[in-house]
Design brief:
- With about 160 residues, this protein is an alpha+beta fold.
- The protein has helices spanning about 10-20, 60-70, 100-110; strands at about 1-5, 25-30, 35-40, 45-50, 50-60, 75-80, 85-95, 135-145, 150-155.
- Strands 1, 2, 3, 4, 5, 6, 7, 8 and 9 form a nine-stranded mixed beta sheet that branches.
- It is globular, with a radius of gyration of 16 Å.
Length: about 160
C-alpha cells in the first residue's frame, strides 16, 4: 500500500528514524550516456522550513564531478535487513561558500540526525578549509519511506507534485 502525503511532517519521524538506524546511503548519479553509478556515502540531514535538506561531505572526484555537471539529479537509497528503506530523489549541488561548508562540518561533528555523522578530521585533517574537503547540498523533491514489516509506503513530493 502506498500513501501520498502532502506534508513532509507526515513522514518526518520515519525518515529520521530509518536514516539514523541505517546510516549509510547509496548515492546514484548518471553519466552523459545515462548510465548509473552508485557509491556508498554518509549524508547528514536536517529540517529547513518543513523540508528535508541533506549535506554530503565528499571528495570532489572526477567521476562524481562529471556526473553532477551533466545532471545534478541524484538518488540516495537507504536499506536495512529489516527491509525498512528510504529513497530520496533530489538535486545535489556543490557548495563553494566557506560558512556553509563550516556549517555542514559541524552537522557531521554533532550528528544530524543523532547517530549519523563522524569527525570529518579523520578524512580532512586541515579542517573545514582543507582543499580536499567539499560539500554537496542535497535538495529532495521526492522522499519515499518503506516499512519492511508490511511494505507500507509513504511518499512526499515537494510542492505536492511528482
Amino acid at each position: 500500500m502506498t500513501l501520498k502525503v502532502g506534508s513532509f511532517f507526515d513522514i518526518e519521524r520515519e525518515f529520521f528514524q530509518y536514516v539514523s538506524d541505517i546510516g549509510y546511503a547509496t548515492m546514484i548519479t548518471v553519466d552523459r550516456k545515462n548510465r548509473p553509478r552508485a557509491r556508498v556515502l554518509l549524508p547528514v540531514w536536517e529540517l529547513v522550513d518543513g523540508r528535508p535538506v541533506g549535506w554530503l561531505a565528499a571528495y570532489r572526484t572526477p567521476v562524481k564531478s562529471a556526473h553532477l555537471a551533466n545532471s545534478p539529479h541524484t538518488t540516495y537509497s537507504y536499506w536495512s535487513p529489516r527491509q525498512n528503506a528510504v529513497f530520496v530523489d533530489s538535486v545535489s549541488t556543490w557548495v563553494e561558500e566557506e560558512p556553509t561548508k563550516r556549517y555542514a562540518w559541524e552537522l557531521y561533528r554533532k550528528g544530524s540526525p543523532p547517530g549519523v555523522g563522524y569527525d570529518p578530521r579523520g578524512y580532512w585533517c586541515g579542517g573545514p578549509t582543507d582543499p580536499e574537503y567539499h560539500v554537496l547540498r542535497i535538495e529532495p523533491w521526492r522522499v519515499q519511506v518503506l516499512r519492511g514489516a508490511d511494505l507500507r509506503s509513504k511518499i512526499w513530493t515537494a510542492g505536492g507534485g511528482a
